[in-house]
Amino acid sequence: MREALFVKQNSDKWKSYEVLQTNNPDELAHRFIDVTNDLAYAKTFYPKSQTTAYLNGIASVLHQAIYKNKKEEKGRFARYWKYELPLLFHQYRKQIIYSFIFFVIAASIGALSAKYDDRFVRLIMGDSYVNMTNENIAKGDPFGVYKKTGEFQMFFRIAANNVWVSLVMFVSGVLFSIGPVFFLLKNGIMLGAFEYYFFSKGLGTQSILVIWIHGTLEILAIIIAGGAGLVLGHGLLFPKTHTRLVAFKNSAKDATKIALGIIPIILMAAFFESFITRHTEMPIWLSISILAGSLIFMVWYVIIYPIQLYKRTQTSNDER
């Protein structure tokens, strides 16, 4: 690669590194590794250039900052939830959006397939589940499945299953992002067929008021896990100026933070499903309040707050 092109591709990033914009030890370490990788590349191909000297200066400043902040600061866990994770949501918003699009398309396919093929619902949901639900509908309790198991037993079973599904979806990103797309399509088709089944029975509105009490958090968390898987694969597919291995390590670090960061949301969804969804007789206003509150929280924490936080960060950096 010619030096001019190398500088053009990375100059904006380097300029942002010139000023220490963060006291976060992990972020400083990430930037130091990033700059030293570029420095190693420059030393190899442009050993006596001004670019190499420039990068060496930035690396030195970052190195000093890292050792100045070597002592672990208090409140590391709180900062992760308040700053680091939301900024990762903003940084990788494209991957999360792609994950959402894949899921919505798959859900639409599932609903249309169920509409035009009577056998599709049984193929996706299984004969035993469909027969059981038909019996519950005949008894006047269509969502009785949520009452069959004790609350605590149900919580641990659902929580373990959903965490496992999300982590598998994330880790499968190592297959050049093919894995997350596959699982998003699979889960989306299942949801589409599942919802169409209840709508076809005249229970569409009731299914939303009951099932989406926990489904709002659960489905959105799965979509974010899919986005984390796409982030993991992004480093392998688009290493840019880094080696593929270095790019993969960087993307794997960020993807892991995202995947682990949504586990509390998954656990909350499991709590709702185990302890609250079973109360199908609850007032409509309460059901809508829980559902709307979950949706508002997810939109705020994953979209609105990260944008606000990013803008505040940029404004603070400009003032410096």
Attribute tags:
13 helices, mainly alpha, 320 residues
Structural commentary:
- By secondary structure, this protein is an all-alpha fold.
- Helices cover 82% and strands 0% of the residues.
- It contains 13 helices and no strands.
- Helix 8 (151-171) packs parallel to helix 10, helix 9 (178-200) packs antiparallel against helix 10 and helix 10 packs antiparallel against helix 11.
- The radius of gyration is 24 Å and the shape is elongated.
| Low-confidence residue ranges | none
Secondary-structure-derived class: mainly alpha
Compressed to H and E, one letter per element, the order equals HHHHHHHHHHHHH
CA radius of gyration is 24 Å
Report the principal-axis shape.
elongated
User: What is the CA-CA span between the terminal residues?
Assistant: 34 Å
Sketch the major β-sheet.
none
What's the pLDDT, averaged over the residues? 88
What's the number of helices?
A: 13
Percent of residues in β-strands:
under 5%
Helix content: over 70%
Total beta-strand segments: 0
